[in-house]
Write a structure and sequence with these properties.
The protein is of the alpha/beta class. Strand 15 (about 390-395), helix 12 (about 400-405) and strand 16 (about 415-420) form a beta-alpha-beta unit.
């Protein structure tokens, strides 16, 4: 089970997408050096011939051709592929090289002959879904001394065995594609070259996969995928009835890719397409290749609704008034699909993926499913047990509400639970639902068109989040069918391969060798982890110029610095940064925010930022163009998606540059040549400014404060130009303990800003508060002298000798959840770190994912995390603090009677339980889920506990598990103002003791004494 693997998976999965020599989840059977026992695939310029039986599945024979070509792509030596009859060995050379023999058990007469005559033990795979084995066999055929025999238990078992070996040889599943959208230098050079290939005599084997059906859904495919396919796979004209470009030339490329990554199931593109109507070969070739076809949650009975019904249906899509015509429509779909391997979607939604009308009732929907069952019986014949025909009922949004209200389907129908479209699974099967013969599965999104905002431009889903949610699906037996909404597919290769491979082998997929040095691998891990973290903090489509604080915790500047570091690291290794990262986009938004701020402060540097915004807006388009023209336009249109200037949930019709403001640089500011803008304020001095004080005029001088446990260790003051006149400035203090990074400088229209950092020599200071004045004096030709004082206070505190833990700094205590002082296990359940998870560092969650054998704990009895902390203040000096645990926005997926919860305890006070996900209407989500400032928009839920009776000093915070599947990212302890927006913190636990300031990610982690 997934619990055996532990959270080390995250670093391993990041490695696993770089030039591997071993397929994900498989034992190694390929080597590149000979030994006395290895079997030569290619040695000394000679390739082992490949034998296959003509009576094997066409899809196996086609994959065998790929297998031979893969060997050639790695070694430049192509093996001979031959059909060999089981009845005679006349097809084999008189003195053959040692061959590779490929076939399907029970289908290939060649394999059957070898098994029967050699006594080869195939019990490990026989009758097992998609299983395979490979081994060296002595004297398998007359005149053949030894052969490497690859045997699949069924059609796809054989196909997967071949592609598994190919990947171990060094052929990427994405060989035709750009390997990732992160690092484009990998494009079209994915195959690792080797002169020789060998396999171990024991070969490779794999049992049945964890998840039976592992699929993808091409959705929201316009504009990128559709425009690209039109250019690459048509002559400019799409399908006759729909204009769709998704013909068999497109789909066969996709089918091969899917099989190479161990996918076997597809919901085809449907918004302006009709899979079976667009190209008569689509359905036939899917079956030939070995792909099981289905249709999405809104497309019952193998018909592409609404497009197909609009073309060939009769009447309206209303079962209360048009049932006969709709049943005829479904009957034709079932008859068309009967010859092929299919999974039938049951039920009914409104036209265009909308809920049915308000008059719809459970009785009507149960009649729909009863009629669909009768259609299947009619098509497949009464002698066919209808329970053997794969069927799903997708519990998507309001359909889940029907289930909650008591609607049921036959036991053999798979219940396909859905996420909330933002990567949070709404429900998993509870214990009494896990013995259904149809089982359960999950429909999951990494792409969306819908509220609170579309997200389909670039990858913004953390693999760590996908793992966290799907590992629960494994533990709770939702493993019959998984399908991933991949949108255009192109930006989501990494997430797609992880999702499918985890479904292929949830227990050991993470074991893989890599073709990278340790140092480079670590850098690659950091690049990928930081990319997905930066994008997932808040979907790019939801960002604006003030998302990240422009004045507190150096947040906006810190985010830009992270993007710049990411760009530099990528460029250093690969000499290229793909448009998937788009740092220009993020810098564009933050620069626009800083432009508006500085304009309000009468700083002419606002103009430079305005110019930068315009340049970055153009650069954003240039990156898109670069992506579309690389490799001779191979991926033209794949970045067509608009992404700048969202006004509501739907995509903008054009990218729109953020608003900028300009300052008249030719005219002097009324207050003089110099502008002083201290850290942490929107105000600027001298002169009047509405952000200086509540009155807005005659405000006192600015002030700065610092304490010796503040995380940054200093504060800053920006000295800026207030007009066209150049000036020099000096910075001085009346106290010797004040340390200034700059004591003098020059400001001009061409160099309009200089930052001065202020710190303290703590060795000179006594305990308590010390005050000083820092004076900034400007001197300019023909201008009066201008001096601005800044009040500076420094607070020196101390903790007792021997104390270990987090210390209050700047009025707050902030702790990454993984940095617990102690981790206490109960009943075999402990808290585990999910590395790279969340917005800042990681997450922690009870492990195993099912918790206390599926049960919960009462408050204060479960496994706990302890955090030692030292505070100097309380709220208003009245002994109160706020503990805010920042948790991931999961839902009550263990049933309405088991809402997510934790318990919080400080010292020996009674543990306080907090059930932080309120109930919602059946099929709905809590009110706080949505909106521009909701849980999923902010990627966080703030779980607040008020604690009283706290004095300054050393304390211990305990967080107890009540329910499994909670993921805590960060903790903040302090006296949080209620006026802060809900997204003011990050993935941490935090204690606010009075100084917490508004920001998106929250305060940086406090000083921790070890």
């Amino acid at each position: 089970m997934a619990s055996d693997m532990g959270p080390k998976w995250f670093f391993i999965v990041l490695f696993s997408f770089f030039a591997g020599v071993r397929a994900i989840g498989q034992t190694t059977c390929v080597t590149f050096q000979p030994s006395s026992s290895t079997f030569p695939v290619v040695s000394k310029g000679q390739a082992a011939p490949i034998f296959i039986s003509a009576d094997d599945w066409p899809g196996v024979q086609r994959a065998a051709v790929d297998f031979a070509n893969d060997i050639r792509s790695v070694t430049n030596v192509k093996p001979v592929l031959s059909n060999v009859s089981a009845a005679t060995t006349s097809g084999t050379p008189a003195k053959p090289s040692l061959p590779i023999i490929v076939g399907t058990l029970g289908k290939s007469s060649l394999i059957n002959k070898i098994v029967n005559e050699t006594g080869l033990d195939v019990s490990g795979v026989q009758g097992k879904w998609e299983a395979f084995m490979a081994t060296t066999v002595k004297n398998p055929l007359p005149g053949v001394a030894s052969a490497y025999v690859i045997i699949g238990a069924d059609k796809r078992g054989t196909i997967f065995a071949l592609y598994d070996h190919s990947e171990q040889f060094g052929v990427s599943p994405w060989y035709w594609s750009v390997l990732f959208t992160i690092l484009v230098r990998f494009a079209d050079v994915p195959t690792t070259k080797h002169a020789e290939l060998f396999v171990s005599p024991a070969g490779c084997s794999h049992g049945s996969p964890t998840v039976k059906y592992r699929g993808i859904f091409l959705n929201d495919e316009q504009p990128a995928l559709q425009n690209w396919a039109m250019e690459k796979f048509t002559n400019g004209t799409g399908a006759a009835l729909t204009g769709s470009p998704f013909n068999h030339f497109f789909y066969t490329k996709l089918f091969e890719l899917m099989l190479r990554i161990k996918a076997n199931y597809l919901w085809p593109a449907m918004w302006s397409s009709a899979f079976a109507l667009d190209d008569s070969q689509n359905q036939l070739l899917a079956d030939l290749y070995g792909i099981v076809m289905g249709t999405s949650h809104q497309e019952p009975m193998m018909r592409s609704t609404p497009v197909e019904f609009s073309l060939v249906g009769k009447g309206t899509w209303d079962y209360t008034t048009n049932a006969d015509n709709i049943k005829e429509y479904w009957l034709e779909g079932a008859e068309r699909a009967k010859p092929y391997e299919s999974v039938y979607a049951l039920g009914m939604r409104g036209f265009g993926d909308l809920p049915l009308s308000e008059t719809t009732n459970i009785g009507l929907l149960q009649q729909v499913i009863s009629d669909q069952t009768d259609i299947l019986k009619q098509v497949y014949g009464n002698d066919t047990d209808v329970s053997t025909i794969p069927q799903i009922w997708t519990l998507y949004q309001e359909v889940e509400g029907y289930y909650d209200d008591g609607m049921r389907v036959p036991d053999y129908v798979t219940l396909l639970w859905a996420d909330d479209t933002w990567g949070n699974v709404r429900r998993y099967p509870v214990e009494n639902e896990r013995n259904r013969t149809g089982g359960a599965g999950v429909y999951y999104h990494v792409d969306l068109v819908g509220p609170p905002r579309d997200y389909k431009w670039i990858t913004s889903t953390q693999i760590s989040k996908v793992f966290e949610q799907m590992s629960i699906a494994v533990e709770r037996d939702a493993t019959r069918l998984w399908v991933l909404n991949v949108g255009d597919l192109k930006p989501y290769e990494r997430e797609t391969e992880f999702f499918i491979n985890y479904g292929w082998n949830a227990s050991s997929w993470a074991q893989r060798d890599f073709d990278l040095s340790a140092d480079v691998s670590k850098t690659v891990v950091d690049i990928v982890a930081n990319l997905t973290r930066l994008n997932a903090r808040r979907k790019p489509e939801m960002l604006n110029s003030t998302t990240y604080s422009l004045i507190n915790y150096r947040e906006a500047e810190g985010v830009l610095a992270k993007w710049n570091q990411l760009e530099q690291a990528s460029t250093k290794i690969y000499n290229s940064l793909s448009s998937a990262m788009k740092p220009a986009f993020f810098q564009l938004l933050i620069s626009a925010g800083l432009n508006n701020l500085r304009a309000s402060q009468a700083r002419i540097s606002a103009n430079d930022l305005g110019n930068q915004v315009s340049q970055l807006f153009d650069e954003d388009f240039d990156l898109e163009t670069q992506y579309h023209t690389m490799l001779d336009g191979k991926w033209d249109h794949m970045m067509d998606q608009t992404h700048v200037g969202y006004y509501y949930w739907q995509q903008p019709m054009a990218n729109t540059m953020p608003m900028v403001t300009r300052v008249q640089s030719k005219k002097q500011a009324l207050a003089g040549v110099m502008r002083i803008a201290p850290e942490g304020t929107l105000g600027a001095w001298p002169g009047d400014n509405p952000n200086q004080c509540s009155q807005g005029y005659n405000c006192p001088p600015p002030s700065l404060s610092l304490d010796n446990f503040a995380p940054f260790g200093n504060r800053f003051v920006d000295v800026g130009a207030g007009g066209p006149v150049p000036f020099t400035f000096t910075a001085s203090s009346n106290a010797s303990w004040v340390k200034l990074s700059v004591t003098h400088g020059s400001i001009s229209p061409t160099a309009p800003e200089q930052r001065v950092f202020v710190s303290a020599d703590w060795n000179q200071l006594p305990a308590g508060v010390s005050n000083a004045v820092i004076t900034f004096t400007a001197t300019a030709s023909k201008q009066p002298s201008l001096a601005v004082p800044v009040m500076f206070s420094a607070t020196k505190s101390s903790v007792p000798s021997g104390f270990k833990g987090a210390v209050e700094g700047a009025g707050v205590i902030s702790i990454e959840a993984a940095h617990a002082s102690r981790n206490n296990s109960v009943a075999g359940v402990t808290w585990k770190e999910l590395p790279g998870f969340g917005r800042t560092l990681s997450g922690v969650t009870p492990w195993p994912r099912s918790g206390n054998n599926g049960a919960n704990f009462t408050a204060g009895t479960g496994p706990s995390l302890e955090y030692d902390f030292y505070n100097f203040n309380t709220i208003g000096g009245k002994g109160q603090i706020k503990v805010t645990a920042l948790v991931s926005p999961s839902l009550n997926a263990n049933g309405v009677d088991r809402p997510l919860a934790i318990a919080v305890q400080v010292d020996n006070q009674a543990p306080a339980p907090n059930y932080f996900i309120p109930p919602s209407i059946p099929g709905g989500v809590p009110t706080a889920w949505g909106g521009d400032d909701g849980w999923v928009a902010n990627s966080i839920i703030s779980v607040v506990t008020n604690v009283s009776g706290i004095s300054p000093g050393a304390h211990t915070l305990k967080i107890f598990m009540i329910e499994p599947a909670v993921v805590i990212q960060k903790i903040v302890i302090g006296k949080s103002p209620f006026s802060l927006p809900s997204h003011f913190l990050t993935t941490l636990a935090a204690l606010d003791t009075g100084g917490l300031q508004p920001s998106y990610l929250g305060p940086p982690e406090s000083v921790i004494i070890h």
